[in-house]
From TrEMBL:
Gene Ontology biological process terms in this record: nitrate assimilation
PANTHER family, A to Z: HIGH-AFFINITY NITRATE TRANSPORTER 2.3
Protein name: Major facilitator superfamily (MFS) profile domain-containing protein
Keywords for the protein's UniProt record, in alphabetical order: Membrane, Nitrate assimilation, Transmembrane, Transmembrane helix
Higher taxonomy: Eukaryota, Viridiplantae, Streptophyta, Embryophyta, Tracheophyta
Cellular component per GO, a single term: membrane
Length: 503
C-alpha cells in the first residue's frame, strides 16, 4: 500500500509520494502507478513509444517497400530525412504549447493529429507519397518535448534526471521494438493470411497507427498537467496565471544555454535518429544478412534505450548530488565524446560480429548522453521550460537532418564512411558543452560567482510589475528546491518551505 504524503500548503492536498514545496515528487517509484506523478510517467513514455514506433515502422521493411514503389537510394535517403525534419519546428511549437496549455492537451492533440499519416502509409503508391507520409508521421516525435516537460513538472530536481531519462529512454525504445515487430507482423500477414508481399507491408501499418491513436486518448482522459491539477483548472482558480507567449519565448531564445544544449542534443539524439533510419539497410547490404536478421541487429541499437538513456539520467542526478551542476556538465561531455569515438570505430570494422558489438556499445554511450542532456535542461529556465525543452529537442532533429543530408544522401560517401565521419562530427560538437555556465553554480571550468543565488537567476525572468502580482511564486519555490545543484555543500542548505508530513 502506498504511503500518503500531505503538504500543509495548497488546501492540504494529499499525494501518494513524498513531495516538495511545489508538490513535485521527491522520490521515483518505478512500479507505482499512483496519481498524478507516476501515472503521468507511464502515460508519457507509452505515448512517446507509440510515436517512435510509428515513425520508424518503415525502415525495417525498406527492402520490400523499395521494390514495390521503385525507390532509388536517393528516394530512401530523402524519406529518412523527411521523417525527422518535420519535428524540427514541431518540437519548438510543442514546447510553447506546453508552456501555455499544458503537456496533456499538447501531447494528446499532436499524437491524434499525426495518426492519420500512419494509416495513409498503407496506400502510398509512389516515392513522393511515401516521402510525404513519413514526413507527417515524423511530426509525432515532437511529443518528446511534452514528455520531458511533463516529467519536469511532476518530479523534484533531486530525481528529475532519472524521470526524464526513463520516460524518454523507454519512449525511444519504440525505435528498436519496431525493428523487431514490423518484420514479424509483415511475415504473419504474408505467410499466414496469404497476402502478397506488396499487400502485406501495407496492412502491417495498421498496427502502429491504431496503437498511436489509442495512446492519444489515454493521455487525454487519464493524464494531469501538474501535481495540483490541469492548467485550465489552476488558471481559473488563480493558483497559476496564464503566461504571455512573447515573454515565454523571449526568455527562452535569449538564454544561450538552451542553444548550446540544442547543438549537443543534435549529436546524440540526432545520431540515434540517423542510425534508426540507416542501420537495418546497412547490415542487410554490407554483410548480406536476411531481412529478419538485419531487423534483429538494428533493433538491438534501439532496445538499449531500455537502460542506457535512463542510466544517463541516473548518472546526472548522482553527479549532481556530489558535484552539483558542474558534475552534470562534466559527465555529459565525457559520455558524448566516448560515443563519438565508438561511432568512428564502427565505420572502420568489416567483421559482422565485431560490428554488432561496437554498435551496441556505441548505442549505450549515445543514448546515455541524451539522458545526461536532459538532466541539465530543466535548470536552464523555470518560466520558459517548455520552449527550452522544445529548442533542445528540435536540435536533435536538426542534427539528424544535417547528418543524413551530408553523409547518407546520394552516393558521395559509402555508408561505412558516413558512419565514421559522423563520429568525428559528434566529437567536434561536444566541445560546445564546455561553454555552459550558471552564475549560481558554476560551469565546466569555473565555480559560481560569489553572492549569486538561485533566486537571482530564476527571478530575473520576471519584471517588477509581475512580481508585485505574485506571478513569480512558482519560480521562487523552484529556486529553493534547486539549491542542491550546488553539490555536497548545497545538500546542507535548508529549503525555506514547510516539510511534508506522513499521514
Amino acid at each position: 500500500m502506498e504511503e500518503v504524503v500531505q503538504n500543509p500548503d495548497n488546501n492540504d492536498r494529499k499525494f501518494a509520494l513524498p513531495v516538495d514545496s511545489e508538490h513535485k515528487a521527491t522520490e521515483f517509484r518505478l512500479l507505482s502507478v499512483s496519481t498524478p506523478h507516476m501515472r503521468a510517467f507511464h502515460l508519457s513514455w507509452i505515448s512517446f513509444f507509440s510515436c517512435f514506433f510509428s515513425t520508424f515502422a518503415a525502415p525495417p521493411l525498406i527492402p520490400i517497400i523499395r521494390d514495390n514503389l521503385n525507390l532509388t537510394a536517393t528516394d530512401i535517403g530523402n524519406a529518412g530525412i523527411a521523417s525527422v525534419s518535420g519535428a524540427v519546428f514541431a518540437r519548438v511549437a510543442m514546447g510553447t504549447a506546453c508552456d501555455l496549455f499544458g503537456p496533456r492537451l499538447a501531447s494528446s492533440g499532436l499524437i491524434l493529429l499525426t495518426a492519420p499519416a500512419v494509416f495513409l502509409s498503407a496506400i502510398a503508391n509512389s516515392p513522393a507519397a511515401f516521402l510525404m507520409v513519413r514526413f507527417f508521421t515524423g511530426f509525432s516525435l515532437a511529443t518528446f518535448v511534452s514528455t520531458q516537460f511533463w516529467m519536469s513538472s511532476m518530479f523534484s530536481p533531486t530525481v528529475v534526471g532519472t524521470a526524464n531519462g526513463l520516460s524518454a529512454g523507454w519512449g525511444n525504445l519504440g525505435g528498436g521494438v519496431t525493428q523487431l515487430v514490423m518484420p514479424l507482423v509483415y511475415s504473419l500477414i504474408h505467410n499466414n493470411i496469404g497476402s502478397t508481399e506488396f499487400t502485406a507491408w501495407r496492412i502491417a501499418f495498421f498496427f502502429p497507427a491504431l496503437f498511436q491513436a489509442l495512446s492519444a486518448y489515454a493521455v487525454f482522459f487519464w493524464g494531469q498537467d501538474m501535481p495540483d491539477g490541469n492548467y485550465n483548472t489552476l488558471e481559473k482558480s488563480g493558483e497559476k496565471h496564464k503566461d504571455s507567449f512573447s515573454q515565454v519565448l523571449y526568455h527562452a531564445v535569449t538564454n544561450y544555454r538552451g542553444w548550446i544544449l540544442a547543438v549537443a542534443y543534435g549529436y546524440c539524439f540526432g545520431i540515434e535518429l540517423t542510425v534508426d533510419n540507416i542501420i537495418a539497410q546497412y547490415f542487410f547490404d554490407r554483410f548480406d544478412v536476411d531481412l529478419n536478421t538485419a531487423g534483429i541487429i538494428a533493433a538491438s541499437f534501439g532496445l538499449v534505450n531500455m537502460f542506457s538513456r535512463p542510466i544517463g539520467g541516473l548518472f546526472s542526478d548522482f553527479a549532481a548530488k556530489r558535484y552539483g551542476m558542474r558534475g552534470r556538465l562534466w559527465m555529459l561531455w565525457v559520455v558524448q565524446m566516448g560515443g563519438g569515438l565508438l561511432c568512428l570505430l564502427l565505420g572502420k570494422i568489416g567483421s559482422l560480429g565485431l560490428s554488432v558489438a561496437v554498435m551496441v556499445l556505441f548505442s549505450v554511450f549515445v543514448q546515455a548522453a541524451e539522458g545526461l542532456t536532459f538532466g541539465v535542461v530543466p535548470f536552464v529556465s523555470r518560466r520558459s521550460l517548455g520552449v527550452i525543452s522544445g529548442m533542445t529537442g528540435g536540435g536533435g532533429n536538426v542534427g539528424a537532418v544535417l547528418t543524413q543530408v551530408i553523409f547518407f544522401r546520394g552516393s558521395r560517401y559509402s555508408t561505412e564512411e558516413g558512419i565514421s565521419l559522423m563520429g568525428v562530427m559528434i566529437m567536434c560538437c561536444s566541445v560546445v558543452i564546455m561553454l555552459i555556465y550558471f552564475p549560481q553554480w558554476g560551469g565546466f571550468f569555473y565555480g559560481p560567482k560569489k553572492g549569486v543565488t538561485e533566486e537571482d537567476y530564476y527571478l530575473s525572468e520576471w519584471s517588477a510589475a509581475e512580481k508585485e502580482q505574485g506571478f513569480h511564486k512558482m519560480s521562487l519555490k523552484f529556486s529553493e528546491n534547486s539549491r542542491r545543484q550546488r553539490g555536497r555543500k548545497g545538500a546542507a542548505v535548508p529549503v525555506q518551505s514547510d516539510p511534508p508530513t506522513i499521514v
